[in-house]
């Protein structure tokens, strides 16, 4: 069951593979962030990182929940505009924003651009001069902390394609360049230390580093940030091995650490922005597959193949990500075998789950994989020319198709004949 809906019925109605999102859960996650900031009396923007899952319907839900939006491409911005997302609440990221992307952002008057490199400062300045308009920006900095989910590495010598180094004065040079621009308005700093982070100490370290820079900039440039964007990365539970904090716990940790440093260096409390993607949608969806073939290698392994795989969920192949799953049509049956779930792509690495305990698996069973709401559909591909899956939203016991299943005609729509 998903939100009162029988998954077997949904599979019959929409086919498989099928992403089923519980919209009430999306709203609850969004509200957990927003309400915690409200409770703590901190002015904030919670910007949904739409790379986790972007569609018109999803962005409409984000809009209804009064979220802001993080887009990283013209395609994500285009989707936001189609969803009628309030432009002033859209923030644009990207380590290689094109002139066209920046121009689209400027012409639609989006709320903020997160500046990533020197080339972009010049490009944006020229575009703004052309449009005779101003744009708020944040400088993205790499604070020298890398989160590896459970532990943090302090990297003295930054090695990242994103942002300006704090350590070697690049960020300060960006500040100076921006302050010479008539059109670019610097609101503050941005940093993002990684994704699927469970503990708060990495965020705390990053905030410490940001403030030691801000302390210097206050003295040297009289710069006081109006905004601090602390990025996303809050972890979720995929399997019982994962132990994230409640979403409010991350917000509380950020807010209290910022307070310490604001008092220490004597500046007003800035607006806090965050950019959660995974933690808003990750645990709100399941993927339903139909079981097809089975290969039993006695004493070695039972492979069970489903009608999707790395084309709708690349994460196990790409990151060795782990997932949990059940047989939706045999939910009350006892565990009878240990199987490994294979996708149907022509590639040995196309495995979804290794060593999963299930009731006896048979052709036609429905496998429900949990927590596939983030970076599943959004990273899906056409490998082996599989059409992309359908996406259904369920809310208050009602289901609605929000992304149609692709057809073979869709697959070929850009193919041109060579005869
Ligand atoms: N802000 C920035 C600047 C980011 O780069 C990201 C993610 C986020 C926010 C959102 O992070 P989240 O809250 O979703 O962790 N494809 C990978 C994740 C890549 C994340 C990239 N940046 C995965 O499937 O695990």
UniProtKB/TrEMBL annotation:
Entry's EC annotation: 4.1.1.20
GO biological process: one example: lysine biosynthetic process via diaminopimelate
Enzymatic reactions: meso-2,6-diaminopimelate + H(+) = L-lysine + CO2
A GO MF term: pyridoxal phosphate binding
Binding site for pyridoxal 5'-phosphate: 233, 275-278, 375
PROSITE patterns referenced in this protein's UniProt entry, alphabetically: ODR_DC_2_2
Modified residue annotations for N6-(pyridoxal phosphate)lysine: 51
Signal sequence extent: none
Catalytic-site annotation from UniProt: 346 (proton donor)
Taxonomic superkingdom: Bacteria
Cofactor(s) needed for function: pyridoxal 5'-phosphate
Domain Orn/DAP/Arg decarboxylase 2 N-terminal: 25-281
Keywords of this entry: Amino-acid biosynthesis, Decarboxylase, Lyase, Lysine biosynthesis, Pyridoxal phosphate
Pathway: Amino-acid biosynthesis; L-lysine biosynthesis via DAP pathway; L-lysine from DL-2,6-diaminopimelate: step 1/1
Record-listed substrate binding positions: 278, 315, 319, 347, 375
HAMAP family reported for this sequence: LysA
Classification via NCBIfam families: lysA (TIGR01048)
Homology family: Belongs to the Orn/Lys/Arg decarboxylase class-II family. LysA subfamily.
Assembly with partners or alone: Homodimer.
Known function: Specifically catalyzes the decarboxylation of meso-diaminopimelate (meso-DAP) to L-lysine.
Name of the protein described by the UniProt record: Diaminopimelate decarboxylase
Annotated source species: Aquibacillus salsiterrae
Species lineage: Bacteria, Bacillati, Bacillota, Bacilli, Bacillales
């Amino acid at each position: 069951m998903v939100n009162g809906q029988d998954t077997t019925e949904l599979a019959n109605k929409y086919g498989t593979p099928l992403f089923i999102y519980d919209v009430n859960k999306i709203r609850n996650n969004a509200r957990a962030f927003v309400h915690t900031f409200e409770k703590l009396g901190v002015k904030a923007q919670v910007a949904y990182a739409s790379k986790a899952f972007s569609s018109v319907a999803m962005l409409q839900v984000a809009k209804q929940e009064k979220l802001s939006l993080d887009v990283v491409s013209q395609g994500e911005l285009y989707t936001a505009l189609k969803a009628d997302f309030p432009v002033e609440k859209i923030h644009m990221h990207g380590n290689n924003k094109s002139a066209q992307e920046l121009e689209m952002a400027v012409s639609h008057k989006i709320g903020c651009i997160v500046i990533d490199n020197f080339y972009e400062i010049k490009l944006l300045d020229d575009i703004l001069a052309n449009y005779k308009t101003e744009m708020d920006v944040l400088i993205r900095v790499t604070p020298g902390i890398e989160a590896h989910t459970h532990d943090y590495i302090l990297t003295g010598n930054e090695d990242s394609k994103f942002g300006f180094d704090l350590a070697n004065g690049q960020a300060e040079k960006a500040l100076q360049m921006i302050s010479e621009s008539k059109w670019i308005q610097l609101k503050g700093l941005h940093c993002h230390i990684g994704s699927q982070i469970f503990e708060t100490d990495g965020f705390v370290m990053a905030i410490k580093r940001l403030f030691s820079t801000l302390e210097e900039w206050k003295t040297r440039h009289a710069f006081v940030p109006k905004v601090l964007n602390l990025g996303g990365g809050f972890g979720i539970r995929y399997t019982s091995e994962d132990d994230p904090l409640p979403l409010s716990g991350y917000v509380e940790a950020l807010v209290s650490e910022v307070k310490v440093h604001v008092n220490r260096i004597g500046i007003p409390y800035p607006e806090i922005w965050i950019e959660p993607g995974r933690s808003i949608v990750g645990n709100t969806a399941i993927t339903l597959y139909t079981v097809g073939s089975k290969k039993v290698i006695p004493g070695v392994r039972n492979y069970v193949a489903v009608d999707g795989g790395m084309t709708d969920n690349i994460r196990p192949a790409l990151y060795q990500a782990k997932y949990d799953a059940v047989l939706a049509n045999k939910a009350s049956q006892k565990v009878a075998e240990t199987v490994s779930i294979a996708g149907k792509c022509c590639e040995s690495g196309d495995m979804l789950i290794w060593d999963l305990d299930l009731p006896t698996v048979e052709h036609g069973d429905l496998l429900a994989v949990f927590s596939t709401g983030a970076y599943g559909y959004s990273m899906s591909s056409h490998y082996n020319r599989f059409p992309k899956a359908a996406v259904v939203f369920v809310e208050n016991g009602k289901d609605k198709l929000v992304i149609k299943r692709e057809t073979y005609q869709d697959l070929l729509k850009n193919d041109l004949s060579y005869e």
